[in-house]
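B., you asked whether I could sanity-check this one before it goes into the benchmark set. Here's the sequence:
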Amino acid sequence: MAKRKKVRKKAAVKKRQPKPVQGEGFIKKTSRSVGEYWSQKSPVLKFLLGFAACMILFYIIYLSPIFVDNIGRPILAVEAKISSFLLNIFGQGTTAAEDIISGDGFSISIKNGCDGLETLAIMLSGIIVFPIAFKLKWPGIIYGTLALMVLNLFRIAGLYFVGKHFSEGLFDLLHEQGGFVIFTALGIFLWIIWANWALNKRTGQASPPNTTGT
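And here's what the prediction gave me:
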């Protein structure tokens, strides 16, 4: 007679599942909810919120004592020297010491707000948060920054020239009101030029090649 062999069933080994980290589920759910909420918003609202966030971050850094002492003042000193050099090309006989440009009977001091960084931040924030590929952003960042830096140097030199050779009222108008407004408008105008170029470039890249035979 054949003997029955008893087959012992091996007990299934239960693998221990890693215990979820406390709060991990909440974080994932919150992140997913925020992502879904953000994706449903219009591109214009996303742009405005991103722009506002960039400007808030800029002013937090820009107004901090660390930035003012270690970065802001050296920038002002360099701008004063270059602006003095431009003025001397036109025979103004100026010298620069730190943030002060001095000449025969007149001098100006370059302070925060005259360094052009606020207008630069406005333009760069608009470029950074604009919904387009980065390869179309970097030309605007580089060339826009160079353009605003050069324009601001001529603005400083122009303020000195107006203050020395024209009325004090005209100097105050250009310095405190018109100068900042006009320079900010220039920054926005440069952003518009870049945005128009970038959108046209993207449209040209997206359009299919013409395969129509003759």
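One thing to flag: DSSP finds six helices and three strands in the chain. Otherwise nothing jumped out at me.
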